[in-house]
């Protein structure tokens, strides 16, 4: 399992699988046990001819996009949380020449950015599929993250070149470059509020948190988390930005603090038992989901701040 995304309302999870499928999972509450949440599979989709690497919901929760090894990005519409599986309503974007590893929506939901092993990043219209901008970077691009408001015209991207680039979506010019990692960049996550922080997960075994606009972040990043024993493949902020969850090839998910006095200290550790490829925090902060090489999704109660 390579990708997991919660719907903005937290009622659904969609996962990208190693075996070319995408699965939608419903979450629901028992009225007789309001503090308990249940998770159950809803639908499975077979739109790709190879592994699906990433999946994401539109900000308004009405559409889902996913990207795969077969070079395409698929967009489907969603009505009241139920995917409308009418092939006439599906948009397929085929602008890349190699596997597409990462995909993300713009904060206003009008555009999608996709990143590929072909060394290109494309921004395209989420309704028509028209390519609006193409940016070239060295190496394979494995991670891309669109900045939330108020910096919604900026994107962070990284991959095998080991550097993270912050750049402008209007013309593609680079705003800042972060080069403190010594291994491939597998994942990136912007903090969700007004603070301009990015967490980057790397094959060097670290997660590093830094200011996206500090030209000297390489020398004075905010913190470097070294709790994992192997490559870190995924990183996600808690909604209140006080903690980060990271998943690693070492088979664990770590929850750690980003504020004093817990700065960079592990607060919870989950033994998953198989290489963790993706972690995702629920929008209300109550749950964390992880996906592993064994194709199993694990969901558990997030620790209280």
From TrEMBL:
Keywords: Repeat, WD repeat. InterPro entries: WD40/YVTN_repeat-like_dom_sf, WD40_G-protein_beta-like, WD40_PAC1, WD40_repeat_CS, WD40_repeat_dom_sf, WD40_rpt, WD_LIS1/nudF_dynein_reg. WD repeats lie at residues 93-134, 134-177, 178-211, 225-256, 269-305. PROSITE patterns: WD_REPEATS_1, WD_REPEATS_2, WD_REPEATS_REGION. It comes from the Bacteria. PANTHER family: WD REPEAT-CONTAINING PROTEIN POP1 (PTHR44129). This is Anaphase-promoting complex subunit 4 WD40 domain-containing protein.
